[in-house]
Design brief:
CATH class: Alpha Beta
Structural class: alpha+beta
Radius of gyration: 13 Å
Largest sheet: 6 strands, mixed
Order of helices and strands: EEEEEHEH
Distance between the termini: 35 Å
Shape: globular
Helix content: 10-25%
Strand content: 35-45%
Strand order of the largest sheet: 1-2-3-4-5-6
Length: 100
Amino acid sequence: MRTGGESDIRVVDRPERERFELWVDKNLAGFIQYQREGDQLRLIHTEIASLFQGRGLGQHLVGSALDEVRRNGMWVLPLCPFIVEYLKSHPEYGDLAVTT
C-alpha cells in the first residue's frame, strides 16, 4: 500500500513470533502481539514506534490484522485496549470478537 505516494506500508503475520508486524518501507513501525489457541487469537498488545505515531498506522495495522483473521476463519479475543476501542468504532469486525 502506498500513502501519499511516499511509503510502502504492509502488514505481515509472523506466527513464529506470535505477532502481526507493520512495516513502513524497510522499517518495523509497529506490531500486535498475540497468543494463538486453536482457531482463536488473543490480541494482547498493540504498539506503534514513536517515529510513526500520529499517522493512522495503528488503525491500518488493526484493520489489516482483522482482515487476515477473517480470511483464515479465526476469532479474536481482544485484550488490548486499543483493539477493544477499534472494534467499538468498526462494527464490521464485531463478528470476529469473542468474549470470555
